[in-house]
Specification:
This protein is α+β, with helices and mostly antiparallel strands. It has one domain: Orthogonal Bundle (Phosphatidylinositol 3-kinase Catalytic Subunit, Chain A, Domain 5), CATH 1.10.1070. The longest helix has 17 residues. The radius of gyration is 17 Å and the shape is globular. The N and C termini lie far apart (about 45 Å).
Length: about 240
């Protein structure tokens, strides 16, 4: 079973689902876990993104799924804006049967979401799957680069971070919460940054119209990418 993500009238001329495929390719290059996906024939000149459901097994039976919102014990009217990624790291540590692996994975995903300017970043867009031995972090999903800055539905990394201007230096400061030492944390960020830096090559290889490249450049090329690219060799912030 699969989910097809269709173009929307609000997308205007932009091939939004193809751009999500760009990010999924970047994420896999960075060593992050992604669902199986492919691009289908265009609708009105734009692509359809089809992703296999990771909450189903080979026979089509449902696999238990729990959103980050549920893991954080948020109420019906609590959007969790005050919860940070440090809080979610505590939830991963509590729920995951392999917390060290899942915390490392989550650390890389946070770096990615900052470096592609993913501003649709809320607690329903993270979750856990129930394997035979218990809960594990699900593959990443709904990661989209945004051309606009200042339009924010994002989570802060820690209490010192501003969701409207997220800084990866705060992710370094929170490394121990993710069971990482400083050099290892810097290496992960640098590795993700290296994958993000190749965004234009990936976009061209996936058939993104060249007229859209400049429009999306601001999503991928930012001072945070410059900072992250040299993170491994930096001793301080």
């Amino acid at each position: 079973m699969a989910i097809a993500k269709l173009p929307h009238s609000k997308d205007r001329r932009f091939d939004v689902e193809r751009w999500e495929a760009v990010v999924l390719t970047i994420a896999a290059t960075a060593g992050l876990r992604t669902p199986t996906w492919f691009l289908e024939a265009r609708v009105g000149g734009r692509a359809v993104l089809v992703t296999e459901r990771f909450d189903r097994d080979d026979s089509g039976d449902r696999i238990g799924y729990m959103s980050a919102r549920t893991a954080l014990e948020l109420g019906a009217h609590d959007e969790g804006a005050s919860r940070t990624y440090e809080d979610f790291a505590d939830a991963v540590d509590r729920w995951s049967t392999k917390p060290a692996l899942d915390l490392r994975e989550m650390f890389g995903r946070i770096a990615l979401t900052v470096l592609i300017n993913n501003v649709d970043d809320h607690w329903r867009n993270h979750g856990f799957l129930h394997a035979n031995d218990g809960w594990r972090l699900s593959p990443l999903f709904d990661v989209n680069p945004s051309r606009q800055r200042g339009v924010i539905d994002s989570r802060a990394i820690n209490p010192d971070d501003d969701p409207g201007d997220r800084q990866l230096s705060h992710l370094i400061d929170s490394a121990s919460v993710f069971r990482l030492r400083d050099p290892e944390a810097r290496g992960i960020i640098s590795h993700v940054a290296s994958a993000v830096a190749g965004w234009e090559t990936v976009a061209r290889s996936l058939g993104v119209d060249v007229t859209q490249l400049d429009a999306y450049r601001s999503a991928f090329e930012s001072p945070q990418l410059d900072w992250a690219s040299s993170a491994a060799s930096r001793n301080g912030h």
